[in-house]
Amino acid sequence: MLTAWLEFDGARDRLEQWSTRCGLDLVRLGTEADAEEIQDTAITQPLIVAASLLAFEYLPAEAGGDGPVAGHSVGELAAAAIAGVFSADDAVALAAVRGAEMAKACAAEPTSMAAVLLGEPERVVAWLHEQGLEAANRNGAGQIVASGSAEAIDRIVAEPLEGTKVRQLKVAGAFHTHYMAPAEEAMRAHAGGITPADPKRPLLSNADGEVVSSGKEYLRRLVEQVIRPVRWDLTMRGLASLGVTRTAELPPAGTLTGLVKRELKGTVTELVALKTPANLEELR
Question: Which listed residue (19, 73, 147, 149) is catalytic?
Answer without folding.
Answer: 73
